Structure formats: structure tokens, C-alpha cells
Amino acid sequence: MSFIPHVVRPRADVEIAIDTETAQAALELELTILRVRQPHDGAAMSLLGTPWPAWFVPQLAALQASSFSTKYLWFLSQLDALPSASIAKLSVHRGKLLDGSMRLLEQLPLQQLCAQTRIELIGEIGVDAGGLQREWYTMLTQAILDESAGLFVATDNYKYTIAPHSSVRPARYRCVGRLLGRALLDGQVLPFHLCTPMYKLLLGLPLSLLDVQFMDQQLYKSLLYVQTTPDVAALCLDFTVAMDAQHVVPLVPGGETMAVTVDNQALYVQVMTEYILFGRIQRQVEHFLAGFFEVLPPEWLAPFDYKELELLLCGIADISVDDWKQYTSVSAVFTTTDAIVLSWFWDAVANMTNTERAKLLQFATGSTHVPVQGFKGLTSTDGRLCPFSIKAIEYEPGMLPRSHACFNRIDLPVYPSRDELNAALQLLLQMDMTEFALV
């Protein structure tokens, strides 16, 4: 049994009503009980429960049957069709990156929601020609996903979901939604790997018991056992779930006195699944989706499946040295003699772990992830293709490579030996990103 949460807009007075005949959840939003959406509804309905425009339905069906490349080109065409936007300049202190950025995103005027982002790090040298923007997106994502922020928690497979029962103001999730939407507008890919149910919520796709495994493997196995055991009464369960030692939530009205039996065990698994995947994070999800769709219309995501949406948002996490090397432009300053240094550089990159390559990529471009199209898709801040490049510079003792993230370029000193180049790169990788001067 699957279900599709029907989200309209953030409300504080949202309730869940259970239809015990179908074991489906309906959400009472804005004092109106909405019919439960069935999986087939998605063909003509948006995530927000409104019909797609008639002209879009056949186009959507054709797009959904297309390759990812075709869908991605269509998505880019929607971005290109946007009117020229103004610039939204966001000035933040690096030491207060999370709070400062969340405040700015929350206060952003509606007319600037789709404006291009320009970043100023207060008190630091550097004009944002693209590198600071990429650095800001990457570092803010890392701050948002940090456990101390209280916004998201890591799942068993190291992806993220909204923290259940988070004490953080729900409005912060609206800011996170705006951030992800703006990243797509700005052509940025983020290390923001959400778990599968979160992507399905963004797309309005059906959720089921199978999706619980992406949040908590042990809980999934437990529910699977409850669903199939013939002696479920021996488990002494009722229709409640404990939030903590002091708080118990009824899954249905009167759930505290409703024992789980062989006659209702399927219903128990269904309502527990709905609670785990949506009910316990409902308000946060509503704000998150509201923020996202304030920036991008839902039909722009409709052609993609959940795996493609992750690729669209996060780019390619595994960094291919061959692809990187193939789409690198080398400065003519490299002489035939100096070419050996370039060979040493690529040997060093090939011997790095993927984490180390990601940090080197962040140093060079401001982002830890590769664009959807691979390295051939690297762009400058104005959206134009801007390949990664390496420029040879004269070596001085103790010199480290320099980056120009706005141009996706590394200035590589012509080191006299392989060992000195390797030592310089290792020192670079040990540095904190705050020690990089990105322009």
C-alpha cells in the first residue's frame, strides 16, 4: 500500500485523518479535507494538488519517457527563458555563515527570489566573480547538514532526512528550500544528498513501506516482521509511537487503547509508515517545499524521477580523473620541459582518494561536486562554459598552487621535483577551506 502526502502550504493547524477502510491518510489543510491522492493521480496533478495546465500534460508524458539528457536540456531551456534577473547581494560573516545566511534567505524580498546570487564575505578580500558563490553554497550546505544545526540527520546510508521532532523554527526549512531552488537557478550543484523519500516528497511520488529502509534499516525490518508475523498479538503493540520517554503519539484516534491484532496489523504498518515518512516531519516538509517552489515551479521537476532529481541537485560525487583531464585546458606557458610537472600533477590526482579530489576541486572551483554533464559542463558565474584550466607559474621555494575559482583555474608552480609537488598538494589538502582565498 502506498500513499502520497498532499501538501498545500505551511499551516500550524494540520491534522491527519485516517480512513480505516483503505488505510490511506488524508490531510486536513486549511479546514478542507482533501481526497487522498492515488499514485495514478500524478499524471495530471502537481505536487501541490493542482491540475497541470492542459498543454503541459502531453509534453510531460513525452519528457518522462525521454533520456535524462533530454530532460536536462529541457530544464535548462526553462531557465534560459526566464527574464534577465537582478542581482541579490548577500553579505555574511564567515564565522556566522549559517545564522547570517538563513536570516538573509528568510528576509529576501519576493521580487529577488529568482535573482542571481552574489556573495560578500564581510571583512575578507575578494570580489564574487563566481568562486565565492560556489564556496558559499558548499559551506552553507555543510553547515546545514551538520548535526549541531538540528535541521537534518544522517541515515544509515549516509544520506540525510529532516530531523524528526526538530526544535528548530519551521521557517528555517523554508530557507533551506529556497537555497536548493536558488542553487538550481544559479547552476550550482551541492553536496546535499537527501534520502530517497525526501526526493519523492519533492516530486509528489507515492511513498510506501519500502521507503522506510532508506531512513532506518532496522525499523524497516521490524515493520516487515510486524506485517508478516501470524502471532502479532504476542508483540503487545498498540496504535501509538513513543517520541521520547515522556511523549506518546497516537497513530489513530484512540490508538492508546487499540491493540494490534492479526485483523488490523496491515493498518498498523500503514499508519506507522505514514508517520515515519511524513507525519513526524510534516510541518518541516511543508515549509521546505514551500520555500523550494517559491523559486521554481513544480512542473519544472515533474519530468524527473527521484534518482535524476538527486543528480540534478547534487551533480556527480565520484570524480573521474580521466574526465577531469580530458576537459582541462592547459596554458601555453607550459614548455616542453615543464610538461613533466603537468604529468606529476595528474599522477598525484590519480593517487588521491575521492575525498581528496573533492577538496582539490573545491579549491579550484569552489564546489566539491562535478556538474551533471561532467567536467565539460563547468561554467563561470554567468552560466557560460568555462573549462578547468592549469596555468604554469614560476616556482619559488615554499610556494603552493593558487586558485581562481571564478575561472575554474589553478596556477601551478613549475616544481623542480615530483616530491616537492606532492608535498605542496598534500599541504594544500590539509588546509581548511577558510584558509583558501577564492576569487
From TrEMBL:
It catalyses: S-ubiquitinyl-[E2 ubiquitin-conjugating enzyme]-L-cysteine + [acceptor protein]-L-lysine = [E2 ubiquitin-conjugating enzyme]-L-cysteine + N(6)-ubiquitinyl-[acceptor protein]-L-lysine. Residues 106-439 form the HECT domain. One of its GO terms (biological process) is ubiquitin-dependent protein catabolic process. InterPro entries: E3_ubiq-protein_ligase, HECT_dom, Hect_E3_ubiquitin_ligase. GO terms for cellular component: cytoplasm. Keywords: Transferase, Ubl conjugation pathway. One of its GO terms (molecular function) is ubiquitin protein ligase activity. It is an enzyme of class 2 (transferase). Its EC number is 2.3.2.26. The active site is at 406 (glycyl thioester intermediate). The keyword Transferase applies. Pathway: Protein modification; protein ubiquitination. PANTHER family: E3 UBIQUITIN-PROTEIN LIGASE NEDD-4, HECT DOMAIN UBIQUITIN-PROTEIN LIGASE. This is HECT-type E3 ubiquitin transferase.
